[in-house]
Design goal:
Length: 131
Amino acid sequence: MTGRGSGVGPKRQRIGLPPAATLGVALAAMATPGHAADRPPEPKPLAEVIVSASRQNDAVITARVERALADDPYIYGEHITVSTSNGVVTCEGIVGDVFELFRVLRLCRKFSTGKRMINGLEINAVLPDGG
C-alpha cells in the first residue's frame, strides 16, 4: 500500500547541490576581487572650470557716479562728495529733500560694484516760513 499515511512512497531524487553548498558558492563568487560592488566607482573626468574676476578701478567708479549725478536734472550735485574704496561707494554731503536723497542713493548703488554703499548724506530741509 502506497497511500498517504503509510510512510512508503516513491523516492525523490535530489538534483544539484544542497542549499548550504549553493549559498557558499554564491558568497564565494561575490567575494572575488573582480566583483563590481567591492571596487569604488571610477571617477569621471570633470570639465575644466576657469574663474576670473576683475573689479573696476575705484577712480573709474567715482567718475561714473559723479557724471551720473551731474547729468541728472533733479539732483543738485554741487554739495555731494563721492568717494570709492575697494568698490564700496561713499556719498557724503547735503541734499534738499527726501526725494533727492533717494535718487542719489539709487544712482550710487547702480554703479557700486560691491553689495555695500555708505550713505553719509544729510537732508537740509528748507521750510517755507524760513525757520
